[in-house]
Every structure is written in structure tokens, then in C-alpha cells.
Amino acid sequence: MIELNELHSPADIKGLDNRELEQLSDKLREALLKKLSAHGGHVGPNLGVVEATVALHYVFNAPEDQMVFDVSHQSYVHKMLTGRIGAFIDPARYDEVTGYTSPGESDYDLFEIGHTSTSISLATGLAKARDMKGGHQNVIAFIGDASLGGGMALEGLDYAPTLGSNIIIVVNDNQMSIAENHGALYGHLARLRETDGQAPDNIFKALGYEYVYVKEGNDIERLIDAFSKVKDADHAVVVHINTMKGQGLPVAEVNKENFHFAGPFDLKTGAPLHGGSSESYTDMFAERMLAHIEDNSEVAVLTAGTPGAFGFSESRRLRAGKQFIDVGIAEQDCVTMAAGLAKGGTRPVMGVVATFFQRAYDQLSHDVGINNLPAVFVEFYPGMFGMNDVTHLGFFDVAMVSNIPNIVMLSATNAEEYQAMIDMAVAQTSHPIVIRTPGGAVRHSDRPVDTDFFRYEVVERGEEIAVIAEGAMFARASEAVDLLRKQGLKPTLINPRILSSVDKKCLDSLAGYRHVVTVEDGIVDGGFGQKVAAYLSPRGVKVTCLGLAKEFIDRFDVKELMEANGLTPEAIAATACK
Amino acid sequence: MIELNELHSPADIKGLDNRELEQLSDKLREALLKKLSAHGGHVGPNLGVVEATVALHYVFNAPEDQMVFDVSHQSYVHKMLTGRIGAFIDPARYDEVTGYTSPGESDYDLFEIGHTSTSISLATGLAKARDMKGGHQNVIAFIGDASLGGGMALEGLDYAPTLGSNIIIVVNDNQMSIAENHGALYGHLARLRETDGQAPDNIFKALGYEYVYVKEGNDIERLIDAFSKVKDADHAVVVHINTMKGQGLPVAEVNKENFHFAGPFDLKTGAPLHGGSSESYTDMFAERMLAHIEDNSEVAVLTAGTPGAFGFSESRRLRAGKQFIDVGIAEQDCVTMAAGLAKGGTRPVMGVVATFFQRAYDQLSHDVGINNLPAVFVEFYPGMFGMNDVTHLGFFDVAMVSNIPNIVMLSATNAEEYQAMIDMAVAQTSHPIVIRTPGGAVRHSDRPVDTDFFRYEVVERGEEIAVIAEGAMFARASEAVDLLRKQGLKPTLINPRILSSVDKKCLDSLAGYRHVVTVEDGIVDGGFGQKVAAYLSPRGVKVTCLGLAKEFIDRFDVKELMEANGLTPEAIAATACK
What we know:
Two copies of one chain form a homodimer. Chain A is α/β, with parallel strands linked by helices. In chain A, α13 links the parallel β6 and β7. In chain A, 37% of the residues lie in helices and 15% in strands. In chain A, the strands form three sheets. The first copy, chain A, has a six-stranded parallel beta sheet with strand order 7-6-8-9-11-10, with helices on both faces. A five-stranded parallel beta sheet of chain A has the order 1-2-3-5-4, with helices on both faces. Chain A contains 23 helices and 16 strands.
């Protein structure tokens, strides 16, 4: 029997028999439970694929055989088996690995992957490259946990068999997305499960795949049998495995949604170790929208598979009833369905995680923007205060959204302003509106809300120097202005609110100013500051644009990031009086 | 019998019998042929759906019943039947209608639609709005001509049946995309056609649709039967109709690709009326890539269903063999497959129409950008010199692409530079590179190509005033500089080439300049000029950014657009010496 600390590479498990592989799986699961309960992470998805990952590495020969995990938050066990066990059994080393596959970490990892539904396209590229080079390795896409319903996965599923060569798609069917599944495809998968893979109208067979069903997707022996049979196939294969999300942690098996991703928790009870009762913008949004829903039967809240990201827990979804729409992980469909709902005279409001909004750029432009339909999109975790994995960065959103015509992009600086923006957006029917939920902790203000959101708000009128700061940066800029006042300066402080156009009248009032500084919670390139600079520069006003550098960064510390980019109150003040 | 000039609304055809409807269809087709041969347009798609559109309007009651056309280039007959016949039978009025559905033109048109695969999502939104409002109309998505393979159509197909109410999806199966179909789904449709709809593993049934097959999709009577049966259904239905693209024009029935969209042509021979033998960047690209393909078996050219847009005609595709990849209209899959190909060590080069590149924003960022994979993307029809339909604008691409980290965006000013950029991009393996094909007629230059493309090229070093102009704007700026010289000024002229970052060293050399003008073939917001302004403004140099206003405009005249935005040589010169 092998001990976990002896696991250096997949070669170490090749000689084990089924019983030893089962024992290994138990140990891996035990270690996972220990780490995840102390450290947090994607709990349910990884507990569900312990046996499948062991079987994959037993049957196939990575890194020659190429595996793509989708979403790669299911790759913890893969990491444990490919030279990174230390980061799972030694608490001091828990942070040595990222939560996703990462080529910088290991040659066994091929891509950074944090958005869903990419694996079949990536695998198709690898397979075609293999064919062009005359290689013979297996290429495997391991897709599941709701990734299959995304449009790009379906595009991949459509194209892959036409290669006419080896590609193996493992559909990890754990019957779940982050929340429950949506979309007719999952009804089809359910019928396949119920019939041991025999249901008629098999969608995979329709596309020309060899189809293999594994009823016991947490049974090593069955998995090895199935994978061995399809290894080295000269055509496209789907292996549909029925797994249990959260297996081995009873609370996670029952409450799959809460344990999709969790912070540190009590291993016995499942209770979170750190309190979570502080005020949040997500709860604020959810309650505000429920009030609108109760008030108006034509208000709908939409999501593409991430209801929890904006406070729509199961109980709140029940309260919203048919006015809550979850299309599954299908951002394109969701944004364009919102366009249809707006055209149909209802008031659609989509909650969307900033990084996932990227999937629907064209839909926002072509379907919502060109048609100028009054759909509302409320972004969560935009800017630098959200997720900090390189695959989930939220600070490119202003560059993406604000340069599309017709779309009004608003950014709130505090709770009162945020709620007033939501109310205005729901009430109006003239514009598509995107609202940035402020980053960081909830801030309140007793400054009366100026609801003329399409204009800049001059919070303090001074002279010579102006600071224009949006969203979460406004509070820092406000502190900077205090510092400047202590130096005897009288800066003007502006809260722009609207990021998609400049308030020319307000900017004209800065003529003759010595220096204007813009501060934004996002990259400078393509952001609102550069629009201000382009407007004021020919008018003889110097503008400095502060914000983040245009780069992909991984697992950063927000405080350090602000320091590095000159975004602390002290740095903003120093820049302003340069 | 009704005459075409008596067609005012769909009510006018309700009393006709089948024979009269057939006669009407013949007249509509005749009028279409006359207009299209004289005027150009989407020939094959519209000739194929004459009977289907007549049957739709006979059975359903628009505008109460809501029809969404996808792509809406198939909506000419719909326009003829809904009050716009004059624009099809009176040559003086041919330009009164756009080539797509257009709500500004008629209440029978619900959305501006020019990109594929949007109809099911839009229809789902309309259907949900109907259900929320307690309405009872039919909602119909008319999808075909390759739109069904796009990921967002598949997302819609997945979600629509879960509404549990009326939605009717007419799959117009004309066996074609713009070129031949790609993807396993089309093999499945072929099997359904061959078996009169009886083939096993029916993908529509798998998703819970009622499925109806119409073998004779150009037979009014059969179509009316089928549509009548599913009218007012309380669930989701797919009506799969087998139509003939180009029906009624023998050359178009045979050569479907060439007659997907055509300029004016001889009705008897099909020969184009206007010569097309002038030099083009598309041919240049195709021949250059064929040379690379012949030279290196690991070079691949990819497309998402639009090979003709960059010169890859059928004969050239044959020359490229297995090194040419068409994934069908699936931009997401294509971009991410390119990432996989690059990871696999080959050299993928995707040709992509700028407006359709929008579909793959997230893939460009998440799969190509974060992973920093050396895939190459060559954009066609970027800027203002490409298509001028509001749904096909190409001048948002710099704002979209250039603000994504790691992506190197290059813009060529002439043929020699363009080809050198392609050669460099194929040869290098350090960066993802996006190349803008210059807009307008091919320009040659005997200026030696400076291949250090990651730096600005100072074409003429002067003083006090600098003009930095990219792509097709460089020639205009060059003329502007000539005008300024005649006034005794000595401007500096710069060709930036790289749009995704500023050349700080070069810009530092402009310290002390009186005025810098940037000129770009795209919107100013989010473009390269604003990056220059943001860099130089705090350094005390005034910068004026010239380019297009951020707005959606339809069927513009390029010359007028340049005049309106101050982009003529005279206007650039006048701005520069302000």
C-alpha cells in the first residue's frame, strides 16, 4: 500500500491493484476533507471525482496523454497525483497550489482554466495538433459540474467528432451546477442515468460519438474498465460517468449548493468556521430585487447559473417564483433572453459575475446595444475586490462594457447610491444599463443621493486640482482630498457615477485647472479616465489616469496591488499635487 | 389572384388558396431575382425560403404572433409580405429597406439581427415575457442557413423547452452554411433528411421538443399543414424543413457558396456584372498563408464558417488540405481550438471578420490571453471600410482587443507591411497576435518595411507637431502632413503599428511638442489614441484623438463619415495646427 507522501507522479499508482487504488482514494479523500475544511475551496466537485481522477491516471499516461479539466476547479485530485501532494497534506504548504490547473505549476497542467465549457475546444486543438505532428497520444476532456451546457462546450461537442481521430470526452455527471441544473440537456442526462445509458434519442450518438455509460462513477474498478476500453480509440468517444458531488462528506452530499465552494468549515457539522453575517451588497441586491418582484409582476431576475453570487439563495429563489430565471451556465443565452424580455415589455435584471460577463460581449453589443433595449445588468465582483485568481479577474469590465454604444454603465460608491441606481434602472425603459456593484465592504453615506446619474456629481467644489474617482476608489480619493486639504490645497472631488460617457459640462468647468486625477477600480486602458484625459488634454488641462496596469495577475493581495498602482490615499494625494 | 403591388400586409394573403399561394410565391421569387440580380444581396438564402415565409404568414398572425429571423438576411420575403413590397418591385425604391430585420422600418420586425444564432434566445425572452403578461401569441424562431451550430443557438435550444409553454423553432435546413456545413450536427440533420425525419437519436426529441419534419420545404401545402398543426402549441416544437438554397436560380442551386451573398449579376449566366479582378488583401492573405502551409506542415488556417471572407475559396481550401480547418459558425470553439493548437506546438492562424470576432471576446481573453499562447488572428473588414450595416460594424475591434493583456494588436498601413506582419506572426512563438487587415483599396509602398513592429515607426521626424496614424488612416494623415508642410510646418509623422501598448520611448521623444494628433480607423473610446493621450497628458503635451464617435450607425457613406469625424486630410491638418 502506498502512503500519500510517497506519491510523486502517476507512475507510483500504476502497479496498484483495485483494492489498493480504493484505499488510495479513501486516503486522498480524507486529506482533501482535512485541507478543505481548514482552508476552503471547491469542496463538492473534488470530493466527487476522487475515483474518476485516480482511474484516469491509472489508465492513461500523463503527461504524454493530455488531460484538460473543465472547470479546472475539479483538478485537486489530479494535482495530488502529479507531484503536488505536499500542498494537500502539509498545512504549511496549502497555498503552494492554485485552485485551478496551472502550467506554471506543473507540466501535467496544460492550461489556466477558470471559466466553464472550454475543455472540448482546447482538447480538439490538442488533438488536431497531434494529428498534424503524427503523434499518437490520447487527448481527454474531463467536463462536468454543469460545464456541458455552455454554448462553447456544445460548439466543441459538435465539431470534435469531425476530426475523425482520438478524442475522449469524460462527462462528469454529478447532477448539479453550482446550484441545481437548468436546461433540457440535464433532463436528457437524467433519462440516460435512469436507463443505465439506454434511453432513446442519445444526443452523443446523434453526433457520432461512441457512447459509454458508467453507472457507478465512484467505483474505481468500473471506471478503469470503461477508460481502458476507450483508450487509444481512433475516433471520438463520450464516457458518461455518474458521480456523487460531495461524496464522503454527508452535509455536502445533501447540501450540494452550499458546498460547491466553501470557506473553512467544521468537518463534523459543516458549519462555517468564520461568521458570515456581516452586511453585504449581495444580500442588499437580492432583497431590493425581491421588493421589486413583489411590487411588479413584470420584473424578472435572471442568472446564468450563479444565483448565489448575488444573494439568490434557494429560499429567495422560491420567494421570487417564476420571476426568477436561471438558464444554466449560458451567459450568451441569458443576456439575449434579457433583450427579448425587454422587447416583450417586461423589466429584466440580470445579476452577473463580472468575469463571466465576458462570455456575452457580443450579445451585449449586438442584441442589447444595437437594439437599445432597456435590459439591466448588475455586475458582481467587478474591480480588484472580488476574486483574485488569474482566471476570475473582474477589473477588465469597464474597458469591455463602457466602449459599447448605447450601453449606460454606472458605478456606485456606497449602499444608498447603489440602491437608488437599481431603482432607477428598473423604473426606466430608455436605456440598457450596466451597474457595477461596489467592491469591498459595504459603505454607507449620509450624503443625499443625487439621482441624476447620467451626470458627474461634484461632491466638493474647490480649485486648481480635481480628483474624479469612481466606485470603491471614491472613498480612497475622498481620504486623499482630506490629506490635500491639510496641506492647504482646495481640491475638487467628483463622483462620476457614469463611466460610459464623459460629462462635458462638468469637465468644462475644470478649464484652467492645474491637474486632474482620475481614479478607477479597474485597468486604466480603455477605462473612464482615458476618456477624461482625451477630452481635457486638447483643452490644456493635464490629466493623470490612476488605476490598474493592464496585466493578468494571480492571487494578489489587494492592499499590495493598490500600493503598487499608486491607489492608496497617500499616493493619490501625492500624484494630485505633483 | 393577387398582384405584388396589392400586397400591403399579411392579411392580403389569408384568403388565397394553395394554388394562388403558389402563384404568389412564383411572383415573389421572380421579383426577388430581378432585384437581386440588379442590386445584389443575400441571393441563395432568400430564394430558398419564399414558400416557407409565405406559409408562415399565411398560418400565423403577425405582428401579434412574433417571428424572429436568424440570420435575418433571410427576411426579404417577410419584408415583401409586410408592407414593404415597393422596395422589391420598384427599382427606384430598392434602397428603402435594409438587408436585415429592422424595427425602425416596420412593427413586423422585432430586432436588428445580423449575427447568427440569436433567434432562440430572443424568442425565449419574448415567450417568457408573454407568459409573465398572460398573453397567448405564438413565438417563432426561424433559424437556419448554418445558424443552428452556433453555441448561443445551442444554449437557446437547451433552455427553451424548459419554459413549458409555446415556442416554435423552424429549422430551415438548406444543407449549407455560407460555404459547406461543418460539425457533427449537420451529419445528424442529413440522417434525418434521408429517413424522412425517422432517424434514431433525434437530438430535438432528446431535448424534449415535439419534432415535425417537412421533406418538401418548398411546397406551400406541406408547409401550411405542418405550421397549422403546431400553431398554438402549449409546449416547445421544432419544425425541421428541408429547403433548397437558391431555388429558382439554377446557377445558385449549383454554386451555393458564390450565391450566398452576391453583387449584381447576369440573371442568365450568373456572371458578376462588375469586374472583381482588382488586387485585394483577401487574396494576398490567402496566397501568403498557402505559401506558409506549403512550407510548413504545422501551419494551420482556421475559420468559423467564413472562409470566403479572407480569400479561401473552394480551390484554395483544397490546396490547403488538412491544414485548413472550418469549425462552422462557432467563433468561440475556433478561437479556443487555436489556443489548443498553439499549445500543441503548431502555428494556428485564424482569419476572422472583425464584427464576428466579438463572439469570442472571452475566449481571446481567458483561453488565449491568460495562457499567453502564440495563436494568430487576422481580422478582416475592421474599421470603417468594411461592411456598413449596423449589425456588421467593424470599428469596435481595437477597443475590444487592445485592452486585453498579453494580446499584441498590430495594424498594417500597406501591403508590404501587412505581409511582413503575417510572416513575423507565423514565425514567432512568444505572443498571441491580432493583425488588422488594412481597410479600403490595396496600397503599396516602397518605404522599406521596418519589422520591429512592437515599436512605433517614425516615418518623418519633424518638430512641434506630431501626427500618429494607424492602418488605413495613415495614408490620410500622410496627406495631411504634406498639407502642413506647404504651410511651412515640419510635422513628425508616426506609424504606430502596435495598438495594444504605447511606445514610451518614442512618445518621450515628443516632449516639448505643441500638439500631438492621433488618428485611427475605429472609435476613439478605448482606442490607441486615448492611451497616447493618457501617457502624454501628464507630461504636458496636448493630445487630440481623432477617430469615430462611439455610436451604432447604419448604411453610412465612408466619405461622409470621415468628413463628419474630421478624418479627411484637410481636417486632420486643420486639427493638428490648432
